[in-house]
Design a protein that fits this description.
CATH class: Mainly Alpha
Strand content: under 5%
CATH superfamily: Uncharacterized conserved protein DUF2267
Shape: globular
Oligomer: single chain
Number of helices: 7
Largest sheet: none
Radius of gyration: 14 Å
CATH architecture: Orthogonal Bundle
Structural class: mainly alpha
CATH topology: Globin-like
Length: 138
């Protein structure tokens, strides 16, 4: 019984993150989910292996699994340039022309900053390339 309660709590926690990602002004949970996941993947892919692991460890269990889905630790750094990072985000929302990938990145990074410990956020921000620092909240 405890395991099913743990699973239910993990689902609730992930849903809270998705609901909070409605900061974009979207009422569509599916789009909010895609946006959050797109930024988590772009962020993961711009970090060095150990930094990506450290960030992943801070995420709720269900989001942690989604964060690592499709990740190959040795093949990182695909999104280390600002344009590549934003393109990765745009790909994650299916290149929807109505979506501004920079707005999505800023909103999701603000969500991450609001939900994680300040020290963890500072570590994650410091680990990202400097040209991405202005996407994080100040």
């Amino acid at each position: 019984m405890s395991q099913i309660q743990d699973f239910a709590a993990a689902v609730r926690s992930a849903e809270e993150w998705v609901d909070d990602s409605k900061r974009l002004g979207w009422h569509d949970r599916a789009r909010a989910y895609l946006a959050l996941l797109a930024v988590l993947h772009a962020l993961r892919d711009c970090l060095q292996r150990d930094d990506a692991i450290n960030l992943g460890a801070q995420l709720p269990a269900l989001l942690r699994g989604l964060y690592y889905d499709g990740w190959h630790g040795g093949a990182h750094a695909a999104a280390r340039k600002r344009d590549a990072f934003l393109a990765r985000v745009h790909d994650g929302v299916h290149r929807d022309p109505a979506v501004d990938p920079e707005q999505v990145a800023r909103a999701a990074l603000a969500l991450i900053a609001a939900r994680l410990l300040a020290a963890e956020v500072e570590d994650a921000k410091a680990a990202t390339p400097k040209e991405l620092h202005n996407l994080w909240p100040s």
